[in-house]
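dumping these here so i dont lose them again. two proteins, back to back, each one seq then structure tokens. dont judge the mess
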Amino acid sequence: MEIKGYVEKGLELAPETSGPDQKAEVVFQKKSEDAARNAAKGRAAETKEQESYFVADIGKGRESCIEAVTYDPDSGNDSSFSWKTGEAVSDELDIQYYLRWNESGNTEYAARFQELAERFHAALEKETVTEEEGEVQARQVMEELELPEMRVSSLEKILWFPKGSIPEEGSPGNSEDFLWQADLSKAAAGYRYTFTRKTNGLFLIRGGMALNGTGEVYAPPFPVETVQITVTENGVQAFSWEGISEESAIVAENTELLEFEEIQEWLFKQITYWYTQKKVPPEENMRFSYPVIGAEIGYTYIPAYEKPDCVWMVPAWNFQVMEQVNGRDMQYLEWTINALDGGVVGEILN
């Protein structure tokens, strides 16, 4: 009922008809949020005072959109650029989550939702472009744009929906509602390729999460430089470039790393912090477990000492962990541990 109230408020603020098309001036400007859309999500609209944003619909029928943000440390912005034609992406992890969602429920809704999730999974498995064919197209984009030398660090199978066939990203409502509203007949399976820099044979790591009050925590001022390209049988559908940056100097080389046993101890502490903050009553009879399903060493960013506009690139371990409740997979968790001192690197969760 709370969501219904928000949506009704948003409808009251929304105009009867859309305004006329306007030619966008290609300059960075203030970002004004849509009052009706924010009300429908239970948030207050606000205007960003920094002239750091550019957004425009482009192409025939305005089916594509570009967004750009310039670096502004005062507002916490990092440099980024994105283009997409179409709407939302559902990746393999999302669909696996929905397949597990309420799978043990015995209600009619749970059974129908399970059938829906299975249809999404079947659509994802209809391969119309191979992993290799998609990568050729993605690399061609990188070459044509003369981007810095990067390597494919990961890829994900995805479902891509054209504009109007699924609610827009950030629309009001619960995430599972979007699956009911999506037109699966228009979805196309494909791949999303993530490119990052490779140094000394190791990839840059984007970082995981960190909890306040859990020891040394590093929250870099901008993310690891990353390019993501989405490809389906119809070609490139989306491009994003985040954390745009350049190397300025080498501070230290051949640094000594912590033993892996020490890194494991720091990871164990983080998992313990994560579990204890849940405050699960003993009478709930819920048994939590946290198997590590993946680990890799690479490089990541930490804040540079007394240089707020810079970061240091340091060696780090990245761990993927599955949170299980009574033996059932519930959610993926990720931690990145600084290999020099055991500090946690990533987004700080309060």
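---- next one ----
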Amino acid sequence: MPKRRDIVAASWTVLVATVSLLATGCLEQPAGESAPPYAGPTAGPTGLSATGTAKKGTDGVQRITVTVDDRQRFFPSHIRARPGALVITVRNTGGTPHTLTLQGRAEHAGSGMDNLNGGRRGSIRLTFTGPGRYAFFCAYHAGVGMEGEILVR
């Protein structure tokens, strides 16, 4: 009859081998293939989507509301818009402060929302003259993936 310590040692060996195989299978990628670009979260808080389309008002200005919270994500994180004026209203439903900062576009230098505290909302107005992809991020939490993109077409 096997001893208890032999059964425990065998169980640990099986566990370590299983975790190693799963990790290898999940992390390896076939040679010559590149990973698809990060597309943001696939689902947000109840009723919120990872992708949203700005709606044009009767004044011709497109508008969209982006929700942020303590999960350190934008909902939606991918915004579709047309060239022209776009107003983004950011609603912070959590307790952690956030920013919405546009990345690397000279014409939008200084555009963004700084330090939006929990329970607050604020808006920024941007104008896009043509199609393009415009990255945005939270200056406090970009390192943990709090980023998104405006796709203008």
